[in-house]
Amino acid sequence: MKRITIKDIARELNLHHSTVSRALRNDASVREETRIRVSNYARECGYQINMSALHLRGNKSNTLAVVVPNINHNFFSNIISVFTNLAFQNGYVVSVFQSNESSVQEGEIINALIKNNVAGVIASIAMDTINPAHFELLKQYRIPLVFFDRICHGIAVPKVTVDNYSALLEVVNILARKGCTRIAHITGGSKMNVFKDRQRGYLDGIKQNKLTYVRKEEIVASFDIDTGMQVAGKLLSEDPVPDAIICDSHFLVLGAIFKIKEKGLKMPDDIKLVGFGDNPYVQVTSSKMITVVQPDEAIAEAAFDLLLRKLENREDDIIEDRTFSVKIVDNAELIT
Amino acid sequence: MKRITIKDIARELNLHHSTVSRALRNDASVREETRIRVSNYARECGYQINMSALHLRGNKSNTLAVVVPNINHNFFSNIISVFTNLAFQNGYVVSVFQSNESSVQEGEIINALIKNNVAGVIASIAMDTINPAHFELLKQYRIPLVFFDRICHGIAVPKVTVDNYSALLEVVNILARKGCTRIAHITGGSKMNVFKDRQRGYLDGIKQNKLTYVRKEEIVASFDIDTGMQVAGKLLSEDPVPDAIICDSHFLVLGAIFKIKEKGLKMPDDIKLVGFGDNPYVQVTSSKMITVVQPDEAIAEAAFDLLLRKLENREDDIIEDRTFSVKIVDNAELIT
DNA sequence: AAAAATAATACACACGTGTGCAATTGAGAT
DNA sequence: ATCTCAATTGCACACGTGTGTATTATTTTT
């Protein structure tokens, strides 16, 4: 029960394996009759090309890689889902890698990518990645790379992002219009573009609306429910208490909701809560919050598109960035 | 800027590439001094082994595949996340494939798996997969396969499942104990083990509790919010109206919540809602529902464990199944 | 110092595929 | 029947790696 190769087919049909190879690739130099004979027999015996051999021969593979901090975060699993469908439709296979927010693991992943001859990579970097040296390594090996969402600025590759600055600016504007004057912001380390931009937007929003409330930003290192509870709890116990909290992550929001309920505050009357991501649960919960919804599908499509273009053109001087704007949904207005 | 191979190293160090190969693999037959010389130089010039060549040479790869209906469903992305970490720690790389609930696409995926020489596969089958012929193909190619969650019965491979029968039996018991008498069940096509088992559990629960309410089961073909709204709407407009609805999927629950709120019913007093999956939002929402929580991490670990065992032992006659019991969480009792 | 034994390295081949080039076949033209 | 040219197929090699075997280098033994 050995695997069938073109050599097996050649032997069976009294041909040379090179002829079989050409026949299967519809090379014009092979006679019509032979081509049909080969393709028929190949179908009959269930021949499947050996990609490993093809990769070795051509120094290129049909494997794309997705590198993300966490596969099971809503945003990233949406990206992977869309990206995988697109890739598969175009004859590629997708391998997934998760840095677990660790720059060290990210480095190990890059090595694995090189070892495994991946054809191209889309990546969203780990929280503590400041030095993009390991990504430069990819470039050295001429492996096309596209950053999305969480990007490195110090490296010349196409980037797909959302306009985080405008997102937070608009959020603050909306909150101010609703009468909020004490707007807090729970965000991440300022090294990363995502948080840096949001912090700029937040600050400008505060300024533009001439809010007297002292700028209140809490920087957290990890994004989980416990951290959200801790920080939100701290904010809510201070005087004056904020009348709005913006959470830069999904899980922080959950912690905040806990604490808000614990304090007996009502949303959105007593306090307004803003979160990122479009978890459909938000729409049906009675915790009427405002969500910043990112165009996941469009982001994945753009990343794939940019990567594919780099894969097809051998010119690697096209460095085109794409920025998408977010949609801000006020769930208080949405549900009856 | 070419990629460094063992031949390059050999040339540089005046050795034969076979000696370099042995040195890097710590073969005892190579002199200590040479081994160090080689490994030092390899490190210096950043040598990375070419996996494609290794795969070709050894007829085996370091790539594992995960085949699921949808990557972006909470349960599956959790599985992929855990599985990927385990795989990477053990030197494997994980490719993901999504059938989009289509048996046809599943077939194409299997072909891709064979083409790409994946070392092993864990899979959860598509909704309309009755005939597991394409999975048999994997067996023919001696590619180890482990089913999880949604399994095929007609094929002899290890299976990792949850005890869906007991889950629904217990759910009905809990509901009955709470005084429910008109318990409805929104489930999927009965061909699949997951739904078949739950339907058995539901029916036995109805019987054991001697409920007079006519068994009310709605079978749906797709699992999305719209379907949930439609079916839940239908149930709620009938007379008598159910006092409990069990939803076999995450998204069905969302639709049901919509309709329940639309009718002005309160949970859990007017009606009790049961859903699958442990989306953390459930814990903070005021829609006090009961959730059937599956041990995602344990399932992924078991699947990996079984697969790894098959990969290491060449004996492929170990067909050991693992079944996990679910945890039923009453969120009404959880939150203040 | 020569022979034997052992250690260390080199050689050749295989894995499956694709491609440049040579060889063969066939047909048409003279 | 011979020549020409095109159509078709075969041959040889390369991609990077690992391993059995032959070969060389070194040490030990007598």
Write up this protein:
The structure is a homodimer of 336-residue chains. The first copy, chain A, has helices spanning 6-13, 17-24, 32-44, 51-58, 74-89, 103-115, 133-140, 164-177, 193-208, 225-236, 250-262, 281-284, 296-312, 331-334, and strands spanning 63-68, 93-98, 120-123, 145-148, 159-162, 183-188, 216-220, 244-247, 272-276, 290-293, 322-324, 327-330. Chain A is 46% helix and 16% strand. The model of chain A has no long low-confidence stretch (mean pLDDT 91). Chain A is α/β, with parallel strands linked by helices and 336 residues long. Chain A has three domains: 6-49, 434 Repressor (Amino-terminal Domain) (Orthogonal Bundle), CATH 1.10.260; 58-162 and 297-325, Response regulator (Rossmann fold), CATH 3.40.50.2300; 164-294 and 329-334, Response regulator (Rossmann fold, 3-Layer(aba) Sandwich). The first copy, chain A, is built from 14 helices and twelve strands. In chain A, the strands form two sheets. A six-stranded parallel β-sheet of chain A has the order 2-1-3-4-5-11, with helices on both faces. A six-stranded mixed β-sheet of chain A has the order 7-6-8-9-10-12, with helices on both faces. In chain A, α2 packs across α3 and α10 (225-236) packs across α11 (250-262). Chain A is elongated and about 90 Å long. In chain A, β9, α12 and β10 form a beta-alpha-beta unit. The interface between A and B is large, with 63 and 63 residues. β2 (93-98) of chain A pairs antiparallel with β2 (93-98) of chain B. Chain B binds a DNA duplex (30 and 30 nucleotides) through residues 3, 5-7, 15-19, 21-22, 25, 29-31, 34, 49-50, 52-59.
